[in-house]
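Readers of this paper often ask what the protein records in our data store actually look like. Below, we set out a record of this kind in full and without editing:
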Amino acid sequence: MRLKKQKRHRRSVRFYTTCFGFRAPFKVLCDGTFIHHLLVNRITPADTALSNILGAPVKMFTTRCVLAELKSLGESYSDSLNVARDLAPARCDHEQRKSAVACLTEVIGEDNSEHFFVASQDADLRKKFQEKPAVPVVFALRNALFLEPPSQSQQQFAKSAEEQRSHMNELEFKMLVKKKKKSSVKEELGEASDEDEDLSKKIIEDLKKNAAKRNSDVKDKVQFKRKKAKGPNPLSCKKKKTENQKPVANKEGNENESAETIRSRSKKRKRSRKQKNLTDSTG
């Protein structure tokens, strides 16, 4: 029995998560009757009990109008009021106080945009919320908690929404097919000039890159110097007369000339001495 109950709850949770986008941790909006039933039947801790039936962590909420209603019920509901004050407040935008049923109905709205699970012991309120497309309902029976299975209206709404989504997907697919056909016709008519220009630019860029690469490869290679043409072997050739030899000859000539001049001068001197001796002897 317990396994069947868990499977049924798991199937219901999967329905709301896949069809309406509910995500853990789940938010549970509680009214005063549900909170009071938890205390009377000692279903504590309440968040753990709710997590067990929903299969994920939960966070419990209530509204200011629910607190005001519990306060107006007197001392018998004082413990329930204290517990309700510890829950997270759900935002209700009405200025004046409303009944708990009206307040919860306004918070849920038409499409339950906040993705609340509603927990209540009020059978009429639960039935009212089951007529809405995306409102899962939780209730308690003695010391056990239950999740209402999706109603027929909720299942029908989910089915129609799924069909609408599939129809939209088909339309999108058809639009894509039409676009592809148009593009193929344009290519056949030769209107794909932009693609040709891009291709030619790409080819030119590739050629430039290859040329630059070849130049860089040539620069990187070792460059050998060319051998210049050499002259004949100097050992196999006759020595030429160089200009350095002329000054030597001139030098020798100068030395000969200087020797002759010295000799001539010495001869003259001798002659002069002889003449002088002759003159002395005659006198």
Q: What stands out?
A: The chain has ten helices and six strands. Residues 245-282 form the longest helix (38 residues). Residues 27 and 116 are 5 Å apart (CA to CA).
